TrEMBL record:
Domain of life of the organism encoding this protein: Bacteria
Pfam families recorded: Cytochrome_P460
Alphabetical UniProt keywords: Signal
Secretion signal span: 1-21
Protein name listed in UniProt: Cytochrome P460 family protein
Residue span, Cytochrome P460 domain: 51-186
Listed Gene3D superfamilies: Cytochrome P460
Length: 194
């Protein structure tokens, strides 16, 4: 009986050690995935910049046309990209995973009459809007991080230095109508639907 009891205690102890190791590995893997996915976008102080490879390494999430204030056509075209794995994770869980990066290219448009009608197409690049999902609150002292995201606008002249100073004043008001969908206009991205 003592041998079986000791064996049971030993096996239980090994199981507990294994469970702790698996949990620690899963947490480390989650942390390293976040750090790896965002290393090209976020520095150690929480400053964001536009990832250089977003057009080739990221997935197209969707496109928006912003209507002209007067007359036909659009004044801007917004093309939105998501970091690798973001779309699949959203489709699986219904939310953006920690570390997901969204990059919105904003183009001023040119509008012309074509055989198909009045057409607006991308003209000059106005800039980028970058968001990074942060469910852990990693940069509490940085005014560009809050409400579960890092937020920054970049003028076309410099993809490495944001012109944003405070996300609540510079970014969030445009996203207020999307508060209930984690600040993202998910209804405009058919690829997120199952």
């Amino acid at each position: 009986m003592r041998v079986i009891g000791a064996l049971g205690v030993t096996l239980a102890g090994l199981f507990m050690i294994g469970a702790v190791a698996v949990t620690a590995d899963a947490q480390m893997d989650k942390r390293s995935r976040y750090e790896g996915a965002t290393a090209a976008v976020v520095d150690d102080r929480g400053n964001l910049h536009v990832p250089s490879d977003y057009r080739t390494a990221y997935q197209v999430l969707g496109t928006w046309a912003v209507a002209k204030d007067d007359g036909p056509g659009s004044k801007q075209l917004h093309v939105v990209y998501a970091s690798p794995g973001t779309i699949a994770a959203y489709r699986k869980d219904g939310h953006f995973p920690d570390g997901a990066v969204l990059v919105k290219e904003v183009f001023n448009t040119t509008t012309n009459e074509m055989t198909t009608g009045t057409v607006s197409s991308a003209g000059t690049l106005a800039g980028w809007f970058v968001m990074v999902k942060d469910s852990a609150g990693r940069f509490p002292g940085n005014k560009l991080w809050g409400d579960g995201w890092g937020w920054s606008w970049f003028d076309a002249a410099n993809s490495q230095k944001t012109t944003s100073t405070d996300y609540t004043a510079d970014c969030q008001s445009c996203h207020e109508p999307a508060r209930q969908s984690d600040w993202i206009y998910t209804q405009g991205y058919p690829v997120l639907k199952k």
